Structures are given as C-alpha cells and as structure tokens.
Amino acid sequence: MSRSPGRRATVRDIAARTGVSIATVSRVLNGHPHVAPETRQLVRLAAEELSARSPGRGADGARAPGGAVYLRCPYVLTDYFGLIVSSVAETLALHGHAVVLDAGEAEQHVSILPSLPSRAGITGAIVILPPEPGDQLVALRASGFPFVVVDPRTPVPRDIAAVSAAHFAGARSVTEHLVRLGHRHIGVIAGPQDWLAGGGRLAGHASALADAGVLHSPELTRAGEPTVPFGRHAAGELLDLPRRPASTTRPPSARWPPPPSAACGCPQTCPSRASTTSTWPRPPAPCSPPSDSRWPRWGG
After folding, report:
1. 158-175 pLDDT tens trace
2. pTM
3. Which of 122, 142, 176, 182 could form an S-S bond across to 284 if both were Cys, CB 3.0 to 4.6 Å?
C-alpha cells in the first residue's frame, strides 16, 4: 500500500507497512506494556522510517524548520496527566513536531491562551483540562489559531475541537465489577461535580447501582479538587461513617487504580484505621480489577 506524496504517516500507514492491526500500532505508540518485543520493534522501525519521509522532515531525516505545538497541562504531571502528556508528545514527535510544554499547578494562574497566536514559532496548541473560561477559548478560535482541548472541565463552546475520555462508561464498569463481587454500600471519592469528569463518573456509578436495584446515597460521596490531602481527608470521612463502605473508590476514566492525586491519599488513610477493619463487611471474593482491555485508552 503506497502513501500519497506530501501526506504525513498515519497509524493506518504503519499498520499497512508492518502487517499488524491498527490497535496494535496504537498500543505500541502509546507505550502499552502488553505487546510482544518483536512486534514493538517492528512497529517502531516502520514508524521511524515513515516519519523520516514525512513533510515535517528533510530528505536526510532531520527535522524541517517549522513551528512547535504548545502543550498546556496546568497540573502536576502525575501518572494520570503524565501519561497523557507523554502520549501527546510522542505522537507529535512521530509527525515531526517539536513540543513546548507548559505544566504545573502554578500555571493555572497565568493567562496564556490570549498570547498564543502572537508567540513566535508556535503553530498550534493542545490544551489539557483547561481552567480558562469559555470566552477565552472562543476568542482563540476566532483568531484562527488551531488548537484542541483534551478532557475539558466544563462543556466547551460550540465548534471548538475537543476530545474527552469515557468517564460515564468507565465509572459504570468499575461499579458493575464491585456489584458482581457483592458490594452495594460503595463509597465514592470524586472530582468536583461541576467538572464533566466528576459529573460523568458519578452518573455512571449511580447508573450501575440502579441496575442492581440500589440508589446511591449522597452520604457516600466526597467531591473536591483532585489532590492528595483531599483524598486522605475524604477517605478518612468515609471510613469513619457508622456503617463503613465495603469499598472506597474513585472510578477511573482510562485505568485502574484511579489516577493518583486524590486516590493517593486513600492508602495513606487506611493503615491508621487498621485496628477497626475487622468489622467491615467482607466481599464474597477478592476484589481484583477488570482486565485492562475493558478501559478506554488514549489512541487505542
């Protein structure tokens, strides 16, 4: 299968060159561990060869002059955000683009979007969970500057390109798994409920419980900013309830265990209550996570 001159290599091109599936190529490019070493090497070699011929590089394989992509993630690069940033950066590199990374919680208080169109050497942007108000996104689009929003906090204005994780479906699958293990009294540590992620996860959890004939109790929900201190405090509150939840979990959008931050505070809280755990309701079987194949993945 030949590739048209002047067109960048795609996942489909790499799959055609190597004879493996598009899903396998995606898993390799996104660093998925469950790929045979020979297949991983085959895909990487094909990606490098096709990338060297892409318009973003010269005939000798060197990066051709051109603008970089501004990657904004105004959060600490934990396992959750770090994986997203790494996947984006690797994919951009595959297509010959340099990346200008803007990360860290301090960046939430810096006004960046209005200045992007005038920044020298920047030809586009990818904005992850942007804290900026919708009018800044609208103004940026009106300027003609190309950008994409990843996992927006709130509904994005019309005609703005956005990609979101399957928050509802992921949370529903987690709760269905716990229900099958016999749990009904399930605590939830969620993100802010005015975020699309927080609302979607809580809705998915409640949907799975409803199918089992159980209504989710608001007293079993703790919602707040996804930080370690909040996770520690919320877990403590749930574990101190008169009737302790059988499981305390924050439903994940793409992986198990849940993203760090708030979730990291939970294990820190449990040891301090170890002496009281003997009265907890016991599940009928060990609580193990579902297969990774059930969770949505970036680029998979």
Report:
1. 888 999 888 899 999 999
2. 0.57
3. 182
